[in-house]
Input
Amino acid sequence: MDRESLTEKIVSLKRAKGISWKKIAEEIGRSPGFATAALLGQMSLTKEEAETAGQLLGLDENEIALLQQVPYRGSLPAAVPTDPLIYRFYEITQVFGTTLKALIEEEFGDGIMSAIDFELSVDRVPDPKGDRVKVTFNGKFLPYRRY
Amino acid sequence: MDRESLTEKIVSLKRAKGISWKKIAEEIGRSPGFATAALLGQMSLTKEEAETAGQLLGLDENEIALLQQVPYRGSLPAAVPTDPLIYRFYEITQVFGTTLKALIEEEFGDGIMSAIDFELSVDRVPDPKGDRVKVTFNGKFLPYRRY
Amino acid sequence: MDRESLTEKIVSLKRAKGISWKKIAEEIGRSPGFATAALLGQMSLTKEEAETAGQLLGLDENEIALLQQVPYRGSLPAAVPTDPLIYRFYEITQVFGTTLKALIEEEFGDGIMSAIDFELSVDRVPDPKGDRVKVTFNGKFLPYRRY
Amino acid sequence: MDRESLTEKIVSLKRAKGISWKKIAEEIGRSPGFATAALLGQMSLTKEEAETAGQLLGLDENEIALLQQVPYRGSLPAAVPTDPLIYRFYEITQVFGTTLKALIEEEFGDGIMSAIDFELSVDRVPDPKGDRVKVTFNGKFLPYRRY
Amino acid sequence: MDRESLTEKIVSLKRAKGISWKKIAEEIGRSPGFATAALLGQMSLTKEEAETAGQLLGLDENEIALLQQVPYRGSLPAAVPTDPLIYRFYEITQVFGTTLKALIEEEFGDGIMSAIDFELSVDRVPDPKGDRVKVTFNGKFLPYRRY
Amino acid sequence: MDRESLTEKIVSLKRAKGISWKKIAEEIGRSPGFATAALLGQMSLTKEEAETAGQLLGLDENEIALLQQVPYRGSLPAAVPTDPLIYRFYEITQVFGTTLKALIEEEFGDGIMSAIDFELSVDRVPDPKGDRVKVTFNGKFLPYRRY
Amino acid sequence: MDRESLTEKIVSLKRAKGISWKKIAEEIGRSPGFATAALLGQMSLTKEEAETAGQLLGLDENEIALLQQVPYRGSLPAAVPTDPLIYRFYEITQVFGTTLKALIEEEFGDGIMSAIDFELSVDRVPDPKGDRVKVTFNGKFLPYRRY
Amino acid sequence: MDRESLTEKIVSLKRAKGISWKKIAEEIGRSPGFATAALLGQMSLTKEEAETAGQLLGLDENEIALLQQVPYRGSLPAAVPTDPLIYRFYEITQVFGTTLKALIEEEFGDGIMSAIDFELSVDRVPDPKGDRVKVTFNGKFLPYRRY
Amino acid sequence: MDRESLTEKIVSLKRAKGISWKKIAEEIGRSPGFATAALLGQMSLTKEEAETAGQLLGLDENEIALLQQVPYRGSLPAAVPTDPLIYRFYEITQVFGTTLKALIEEEFGDGIMSAIDFELSVDRVPDPKGDRVKVTFNGKFLPYRRY
Amino acid sequence: MDRESLTEKIVSLKRAKGISWKKIAEEIGRSPGFATAALLGQMSLTKEEAETAGQLLGLDENEIALLQQVPYRGSLPAAVPTDPLIYRFYEITQVFGTTLKALIEEEFGDGIMSAIDFELSVDRVPDPKGDRVKVTFNGKFLPYRRY
Output
């Protein structure tokens, strides 16, 4: 069984059992951002976390082992994503990429925001005109090394 | 003069005058996210805002008019960005795109986070192990219309 | 069973049973645009709608559940579509994209037509020189947020 | 002067003179869809139409001649458009392309909606929850020839 | 069974039975251009034509039904074809595309040659220096609609 | 002056002088297919032909020399052409490529239709339902060498 | 069984039986260049040749028939090959393509080297500093037809 | 002046002076393959060679210096070449790439033919049925290092 | 069984048996760089090495034979890798490619670092601020042949 | 003046003055890897460093300012590099990417080698069979954050 099939199976089991990503995250003891990414095949779990997740969803031993392996990352089937929800993040990069670069460099100097030493979270912001999605990226600033 | 050349000129004038993006934003009366995007050719300014920016930077009338025009958006020269700072946002979309989709849909149902009714901000989070970049996206949730 | 196989199965069952998309849409209580998109794996149905569709076509429980799940959207196998009927819509975007941008912005200001809060319909316009296809897109105008 | 530079010049003159696309269309005696496309370098004008447009905008003889020439069509700088307004039309094709194919073929049989014997219009639909954009495509149905 | 597998099966049965495309076309009562395209999954047959073809080749009911369905067109596995015979047609488009455009527009005005109301034929032209292939495209001229 | 600029200049001079491609072809003593391709930078002319063309259009000596040079061929700005007239030929290759391959190989055996020892012509076929464009490709059949 | 699977099977049988490409070529009575290409699915064999090859390798009747069919050519999984040995030939085309064009045209005039009426061979050139690979392409010169 | 412009200038001067690539090669004291590649911007010349070439063609000092600089190699404007002469070499790689790999590895073991320690030559092979182009690649065999 | 499936099986067996790449390399008697590449389907092993590896992992005879075959190289599913660890090497090529070219050519003259007569190693460099990865590429310098 | 033109000018001045990259690096007080990258437009210099470099090469004030600005990084004109020296690094990523991933993860766990907190160096390794290029990448290991 490869990782992609396991992801499909997990999504299917989760639907059948009616468990939410947040619930699984709570059981594992990780934030929803981390836990969901791991179950969707983009992060690796520790043995313990994988076993907890496996019991919740009903995975076999081999599948639980697969959850602990570092995956080949990249969750999208094309360079420019076609799914509208995910495309909006690509659009933000396309339209506001130079803005993000300008503001981060003005504040921090020459470097990047790490996507490895990195957390993401999704929150609901109630708003009478329609609730809003708040997505937060929190990554360590890494300055270019001068040598 | 096309918009791309104006962007280059603005960056060059800003460097020569030593003004920060935040300062320009403050003068215009907009947040740094919005004002920087506008000056980099991704958002349009009102007549007043454009004139303020024009005076700060020393733009001529035609250039000030150009700042008020809706641009053809897209700030990057390639579908997959090569600049490491900007690439990290592409990487986040590639690696965490399905996670963002899963969490937003679990919380809000079937729909998207708007990239139009949308704000972005960049903040510094002090951290003894190295300060962190916090990027916040805040967009209205738009449910798919059922008809 | 993944969503793509389900779509293939639905098309096959529909052919075997000789039911039209319009008929299914009517039974479900949605417009043909919405219902067809949902059955082709691009929109999600409510539990009730999915069950109605499932009974009409003869789907099993798991397949009916799959119809209620939010799909990874994108219905075409390539960035530039090869099917002539669908290509014509791509061609319209390529040739008239800047025209649509100019006219929408002249009428509404800086923003977009939503493809989420959005309806589409297809109608026949009788014409002695050959009937015409009328495709209508109806989406909420979303102005860019100024912040 | 090539056609692309003429398009840029026309946009710039129009801004300076403060004329709308609709006004130019009216003067030429064509619909806004057709006239705007022609001035943006995607359709050709007759001699008379080109002269009217030229006088309104202040074009020279050579430029007026260029407006009458059939252009090499295609108005976008990339296969997948980056501008959010235009991208939404690409998204509609990606997400609803198979739906459009299914509905047109169910109603008309095997063939296409012409993008040549074709009209487009953009209208405002007032709505208390926010006005809506209505885009209408009206093209002759062309059945595949059987031979 | 999807259309692609059916195409493979048809090619295989045809080889085993030693029937030519021309023979099948004759039986169906269509030209070789149309009939071959239909059997290769690019055109749809009527019920009667599909049954004739099915009997000749030994297809089952479901496969005969599939021959009557409008296919998702596009017969090549890549945007630039790798097969040398087919590439030559791509090369002709690349090298002589602007020539074809110039000559058609000079003769007919602004418009296109339809690829829908369209016939193609392949003939042998005996020539002492080596026989020649004559490919004829015959499509209705469609002028751009002025509106 | 590079070949592309010369092509643009030739198109512009031709428009100003009101000469047709057919007329130029006749003066040069070549068919319209060949002569137009040569003037659009895809074929080379002999010294005599180039001089005749140069006099007709008003080219200088250097430009006349350029007409005699073998060009780097390829007349389109993208792998998939965006111009609707030219795209139709690409569409024919995409949709009917395997049909052309099947019919040519059935008639001639394993080989190709040459695109070098090759002629093309464009003709008008009067038709009461709308005149038709007839495009003929005539290329030597080249069998694969067995060695 | 499609041609690609047959190619894989042939490679596997050849390894198991320890026969060389040269040996198979000799048995078939063709050069190694031709015979290897045919067995790798890029050329077609005659009935007799296919039967000889089939007996050597242990193929069944259907597979022997497949060897006689004209294949859809193109042996690489990507437009730019990733395998280093094959990439070097791509590199030669990229780096020396214009040189080859210049030298062939200087010697022969405007035309091409045929890749159809074409032979290739691979030889070893002993060299004290390390043996050398000599690859020879031998193709008929085809002048562009003037018409 | 960049290298690409210099290449264009050299081609233009060569045409004006009527010197052949072979003649220049002879004067420089290199083979036509090497010398032509160098003048087309793909190889570097020694000081002496560059000066000889410069005098023959009439280049200035700066241009002669540029001929001695190592270029950024790659002589084609697209990944898949559009020029038919050059495309044939790409086609050979596409169709016969796996054959070349099979034969070289059978003869030499696991490794590649170097495209650096490499010579190419173009020769005419007289043939009563039409002369043939013989292209020879001669590169050192490099075995993969085992470590 | 094709090579890709074998790679997947090897990774799975290795996980189940808890053996490290370094351990396998040691048993085979090759460096970790070479041995890991071979087991991941990018290098070929000798009979003896393959048998040792096969016994360690529990492969059958056919699989052991496959390990000795020269593979079609290229280990990534896309031209621009999506996995962050591997992308960093792509990024280094994109950002520092011209630097590597400048420094190698300054030191060695016109040529390349071989990727065939080549070794790679990965080492840990302890560092109080966080350990560092040291990747070393060691390839023979190959000067361009002058001929 | 944009950064790309400055890079071209710097290369040209360096050639005219006959200074080596190593010499400039020494004057600036940085390693050759860093200094060369900065002058080729991929890293930014401090004011002092930029002035030193400017004096060495003869740059004006504006150009010296440009050297201190953070560039939009990415030094190659295509996603797959065509220059053979640079391509070899791409090839290493393609062929050995999964090997590097396997070895780094075995040694360090789940994470990446930073390309930001990163040094590169190029050294000559004398070897009687031909000197070797040693390229060293030294980057901080960054473990994925667990949160």
